[in-house]
C-alpha cells in the first residue's frame, strides 16, 4: 500500500473483521466504529462524524486526545532511543522514577515499570508474595483487575467465570456490604467487620496482601464510605498484610486528586497505575512500593520482568503527560468539573425516573438506570446489557456521544480537560437517551 493509497470505510471494516480478533465479544456481532482522528474531547470516524468521548476511551485518555506536547516528546524519544533493554538505564527512567516519587502518596519511592495495568497488578502480587513469604491474596467482589490469567482470577465480577477453571490457588474474595444494589452505601463498619472475619477464617499468617480498587471502576464507580480505607489500612497493619491499591483507572487526576487514595490520606504498601500515566498514548504501567517492601529485594532476587518493561517510548510519553497535567492544572480542573458533572447527574435524576442512582468523584462518574425506583431493580439484568440499554447506546452514538454502557449503567468519565460548555453539550444528548430508558420502566 503506497502513501497515497487509502482504504475506504467498508474496506477497513471488512479487513479488520476478517483478520483481527476483537476484545470481549463474539466476533459475529462485531461492528466497530471506524475512526480516523481525534483531538481534545472528540474523535471523528472515517465519514467525518464527530463523537464526544464521554469515557476517555477506556478511562485512560485523561489529558485529551492528540496533545502535541506529548506527541513531540514521543517523536524526540523515537529519534534518540526508541528501545533499550530493561536491564539498562537511560535518562527518562531516572527522571520518571524521581517524578513519580514526588507524586505518589507517602513514602512510596521505588517503581517497577510494566507494559500496562494487568501486568502491573501481576507484578504487585508477585512482589507481595515474595516480600511476605505468604501465598494467599484477598480481593473484592465487584472488582476488576485485568484479563490475564491471574488478574482475571483476582477480578470479582462475572468476567472471571470463563477464566477460573481451574482457579488460581490462594485467591479469596470478600464481600463489601455497601456494594450491593439493596445495601447501605455508607456502612464502612460492617464492611470492615466482614473483612476482619474473613482474615480470621483464612488465617492472618497465610495472607500476603489485600488488593482493592480504591474506587471501583467498570463495575459501578463504587466510592468507598469515609473510614473504610482507613480501616483497611489498620487491619492490614494489625495482621502484617500488605495493602495493594489498584489505581489503574482511578489514578492520575481522574477523581480530582492525583490519586484516589489521597482523598482519604491513606498510603498503601503497593500501588498500581497505568492508563492515565501516559494518557493511554503509549502502553506503560507502574508499580509503586514503600521502602519496607522494596528492601526485601536488596538481597533477594525479584523474579520478574519482560522485554518491553520500562520502554523508553512509554516513559517519554509518561513524563510529557505529567508535564501537561501540571501545566494545564488538569487535576484541579477534574475537581471543579466534577462538581459540574454532579449537577448534571442531579438534573438527569430529577427529570428521569429511570435514573435510580448517580455517583461521581471528580470526573469518575456513573448513572445507574432502574426499572422501578421503589425496588431499585436494575433496568438491565445483572451481567447483561439488554435491548433497552443497547437502544440507549445506539441513541448516544447516533447523536455523537461515545461512552461505555455496561449492564444498566451509563459511564460518565470525560477527559480531564473537559469544559463546562462541553459537559452541557453532552448531557443534552444524554437527556434524550434517558427518554428511552424511562419508556422501558415497569408500570
Task: Give a quick set of tags describing it.
13 helices, seven-stranded mixed sheet, Aspartate Aminotransferase, domain 1, alpha/beta, 443 residues
Explain the overall architecture.
With 443 residues, the protein is α/β, with parallel strands linked by helices. The protein folds into two domains: 9-63 and 329-439, Alpha-Beta Complex (Aspartate Aminotransferase, domain 1), CATH 3.90.1150.10; 68-327, Aspartate Aminotransferase, domain 2 (3-Layer(aba) Sandwich), CATH 3.40.640.10. 37% of the residues lie in helices and 17% in strands. Helix 8 links the parallel strand 7 (207-213) and strand 8. Helix 4 (91-103) packs across helix 10 (312-327). The protein is globular and about 60 Å long. It starts with 8 loop residues before the first helix and ends with a helix.
Indicate the CATH architecture of the largest domain: 3-Layer(aba) Sandwich
At the first level of CATH, the class of the largest domain is Alpha Beta
Shape: globular
The Cα radius of gyration reads 22 Å
Topology:
Elements lengths: L8 H11 L15 E5 L2 E4 L4 E4 L2 H4 L8 H13 L10 H13 L6 E5 L2 H16 L3 E5 L8 H6 L16 E4 L13 H15 L4 E7 L14 H12 L2 E5 L23 E4 L11 E5 L1 H4 L17 H16 L2 H22 L3 E7 L2 E9 L4 E2 L8 H12 L2 E2 L2 E2 L2 E4 L7 H20 L4
Parallel strand pairs: 3-14, 5-6, 5-7, 7-8, 8-9
Antiparallel strand pairs: 1-2, 2-3, 4-10, 9-10, 11-12, 12-13, 12-16, 15-16
Helix pairs in contact: 3-10, 4-10, 7-8, 11-13, 12-13
